[in-house]
Amino acid sequence: MASEPLFQWYEEYAEKENVRKDAIREVTKELEMIQRNMDRQLQQCHARKPTEMQDVYESVRSMFTDVKGLYARLADTLHGEEYYRYHGLWRQVTQNLVFMAALWTYLEQDRILQLEEFANLVGAKPQGEGFHVDLEDFLHGICSLPSELARLATNCVTMGDFVRPTRINAFVADVYNGFRLLNLKNDSLRKRFDSLKYDVKKTEGVIYDLSIRGLIPKE
């Protein structure tokens, strides 16, 4: 049959594709397990004082060492020019890991995570050719941070900490204003950005409640 070589070639091609995708999914599953463990660790910020979180930070730092090894495996599975061909297979877990790194950075150092820092954490390039951290993935992860911090501001009040919510409010507003400077074209990223104004309102609401009760310490 004249068409037999064509279908035989396609069968071999499809088999190679499935092998590669399965290898990527295997790494992705391991990354997801680590990310969930990080999340469980970092959620303790809602019930612990900042001075009681050092063991959590060390645990997260150790887990990112494992993440770096897995990203190296991911890079070895790909050729540089095939990055976006398979990018969808690890996009979500990367966004989640950016969020974990951003939350960890804020909790420990009271500042925002930089793209270059995250790239170094996972052993990838910050941008450009080859295996890198996609900028939109990074921004998606950062977009998740204000919501968690708005929740933290409320829980700080429950724990009797009336100072930290003011810093959280200023930080969340700063992140929101930073995103406002961007001309976002990505629809999903634009929707995530639009939700940030509700996080700003939540933290402002916490500050308002503290203010009318006279609970905000004077500097």
UniProtKB/TrEMBL annotation:
PANTHER family: TRANSLIN AND TRANSLIN ASSOCIATED PROTEIN X. Belongs to the translin family. One of its GO terms (molecular function) is endonuclease activity. It comes from the Eukaryota. Its main location: cytoplasm. Pfam families: Translin. Ring-shaped heterooctamer of six TSN and two TSNAX subunits, DNA/RNA binding occurs inside the ring. GO terms for cellular component: cytoplasm; nucleus. Exhibits both single-stranded and double-stranded endoribonuclease activity. May act as an activator of RNA-induced silencing complex (RISC) by facilitating endonucleolytic cleavage of the siRNA passenger strand. DNA-binding protein that specifically recognizes consensus sequences at the breakpoint junctions in chromosomal translocations, mostly involving immunoglobulin (Ig)/T-cell receptor gene segments. Seems to recognize single-stranded DNA ends generated by staggered breaks occurring at recombination hot spots. SUPFAM superfamilies: Translin. This is Translin. It comes from Monosiga brevicollis (Choanoflagellate). Keywords: Cytoplasm, DNA-binding, Endonuclease, Hydrolase, Nuclease, Nucleus, RNA-binding. It is found in: Cytoplasm; Nucleus.
